[in-house]
Amino acid sequence: MRKLLYLSIALNLVLALFFVLWFSKPWHWHALKQSLGLAEKQAPSNYYQIKSEIFASLPITQEDIVFVGNSITDYAPLDELFKNISAKNRGIGGDDIGGITQRI
Asked: What is the pLDDT of residue 57?
C-alpha cells in the first residue's frame, strides 16, 4: 500500500513539474488560449495584405498546381522541389483556414 502511495505522489509531482515547465513559455499559454477560443484576434499585418493583393493580380492557368497555406508553404522552395511541374506558391505566413477560404 505504501509503494502505491509513493508512486502516486511521484507521478503527481512529475505531472505538476511538466505543466509548470510547459506553461512557463509564453507561446504555450497563447496556444492554450487559442485552442480554447480565448485568444484575441489580431488584425492582419501589412505583409498579409500585400501578399494577398499580389497573388490576386498574378495569373493562374489550368496547368498550374497551386499551393496555399501558412508560413510552411510561404517559405517552401517549390521551384526547387517540383522542377518538372508548374507550381505556384500562394502561401502567406500567419494565414489560417479562414484566410485561405477567403482568398480562394
From this structure: 92
How many CA atoms lie within 13 Å of 20's alpha carbon, on the beta-carbon side? 6
Helix (H) or strand (E) run with residue 66 in it: strand 65-69
Q: How many angstroms separate the first and last alpha carbons of the chain? A: 62
For residues 30 and 39, the answer to whether their CB atoms sit within 8 Å is yes
The C-alpha R_g of the chain, in whole angstroms, comes to: 22
Residue 92 and residue 101 in contact, taking contact as beta carbons nearer than 8 Å: no
Residues belonging to the chain: 104
Q: What is the DSSP letter of 67?
A: E
The pLDDT tens digits of the residues spanning 18-34 come to 776 666 666 566 666 77
Cα angle, residue 103 at apex, residues 98 and 104 outer, rounded to 5°: 100
- Residue at grid coordinates 497573388: 55
